[in-house]
Amino acid sequence: MKKYLVRLITGGLIVAGLGLVATKFEPVRSVTAAITLINPKQSNKPTKATSNAKPNHHSEDKIQKTIDKMSLSEKLGQLYVADVARGDAAANSAVKNYHLGGVILGSEDFTGSRSSFKNHIKGMQKSAKVPLMIGTDQEGGTVSRLSISRAISGSTYYPSPQAAYHSGGMKNVVAQAKRAARDLKALGINWNYAPDVDVSANKSSFIYARTFGKSAGKTASYVKAVVPAIQGQGVAATLKHFPGYGSAADTHVGGATTNRSLANLKRVDFLPFKAGITAGADSIMVTHIVLKRIDSHRPASLSKKVVKLLRSDLGYRGVIVTDSLQMGAVTQYARAHHINADVLAFKAGNDMLMSSNYRSGIPALKRAIKNKQISIKQVDASVRRILEMKQKIGIYK
Which among 55, 149, 213, 257 could disulfide-bond with 59, CB atoms 3.0 to 4.6 Å apart, if both were Cys? Predict the structure, then answer.
């Protein structure tokens, strides 16, 4: 099994969220007319306050000039948000040599002093030709990277959304989201894989403790409030896990399926995602659950039928990122079907690949392009969305 499952076992950190800290790739995530699902014929124009707004022509020209100057290796590197080797030299080398678009920080990265932690991030940024997205899982509660080290974050208590709401209502939920985002930003982290917008009525389900714990409509209202709270601090937010975990099993350790229909997903699970899109969410993360009534053959993250729902049904224009492609649901599928998960995930329509297989993945993507399985047009479109997200949070100017 990949090193992430090894860390799960050796660290005793069961991904179901029973402990305070979690593993690297986020382990153990009345609706108003404004957030109702759009008709495909309707426009999806966001308000001026949202971050789905298109950049101005000057910004577009600059991004296009950057893309035109990029080599194929540089473009493909931008597609990756990866766990890199420990140690400044190794991390900096990976960022520089593979032109990575982003880096994810897990529990084992939150060690040392605050200054050494910040210097590590600064070193990686200095090694990047295009500034990096530095991401982590900061949901609060059981999935809280900032809770790992008081020496780094200054605190070990970041409540879950459910706990924050119980103690102080929505006002406290928003305040906690802002607080966590400010603390992330102060450390050099500019991408939070939160909020978890899954809807689950089953308190014993894998995902329940990480959800808002309420109906789809109330979860949508929660999402609408916390996305701007996070992004107002200069940190990109992530809606996860599309199209909705529900009561499905844990995909970190193996495959999981659901028999829910697309109509049911639209009626329930899509509502919080639509609310987040309306609020201008910078990114959406796709899960690895197999949705048997939509695509019975592939995990959602590897399925074009599932991923395209974000563009066609929800009109989303931002960055789509996979959940970790090192999770059991994907590694088992890849071995059984003799496929390269990175290539299949990109072909499915994801923009960014949460994968540490960039050393083999980038050459595999090049072969797929050469064999006309992937078009340069698709690569350029994804790179554009990635650069637009970087530009919006102020790291790419």
Answer: 55
Sheet holding 80-82, edge to edge: 191-192, 133-136, 102-104, 80-82, 353-354
Q: How far is CA 256 from CA 246, 269, 297, in A?
A: 11, 17, 12
Closest CA to 320 of 311, 333, 328, 330: 311
Task: Calculate mean pLDDT across residues 109-126.
Answer: 96
Axis crossing angle, helix 161-187 with helix 114-127, rounded to the nearest 10: 60
Q: Worst-scoring range by mean pLDDT, 19-33, 51-65, 146-160, 168-182?
A: 19-33
- The count of other CB atoms within 10 Å of the CB of residue 368 is 18
Sequence-ordered list of residues with C-beta below 8 angstroms from that of 136, at least 6 positions apart, any chain? 104, 105, 106, 145, 184, 189, 191, 192, 193
CB-CB contact of 334 with 365 (8 Å)? no
Active site residues: 252, 323
Q: Sheet holding 283-286: strands in order across?
A: 238-242, 283-286, 319-322
Least confident interval from 71-85, 199-213, 263-277, 360-374: 199-213
Tell me how far apart the 2 most distant CA atoms of the chain are, in Å.
57
Closest to 357 (Cα-Cα) out of 76, 51, 75: 76
Q: Give pLDDT tens digits for 131-157.
A: 999 999 999 999 999 999 999 999 999
pTM of the model: 0.85
- Here the tokens at position 91 are 């991390």
| Mean pLDDT across the chain | 86
Among residues 252, 82, 276, 313, which one has the least CA distance to residue 196? 276
Cα 121 from Cα 84, distance rounded (Å) = 12
- C-alpha–C-alpha distance, residues 307 and 349, integer Å: 6
Whole-angstrom Cα Rg for the chain: 19
